[in-house]
């Protein structure tokens, strides 16, 4: 089981670059890459809140659960 992060889809839909997004959220582009590549072990609620504010979305638009069979 895994949690998938759909940041790249949301950024593409909004025409936003990783650099613009990172600056608006207040995290480094390297940390955005960690999130996008599924290597993050945790996300602070304050960061998730900032992501949702910047992308004007809900947490479920950013994160989704993927069963083992679908990985």
From TrEMBL:
CDD domains: HTH_XRE. It comes from Glycomyces terrestris. This is Transcriptional regulator. It comes from the Bacteria. Signal peptide: none annotated. SMART domains: HTH_XRE. PANTHER family: DNA-BINDING PROTEIN, DNA-BINDING PROTEIN-RELATED. GO terms for molecular function: DNA binding. Residues 7-62 form the HTH cro/C1-type domain.
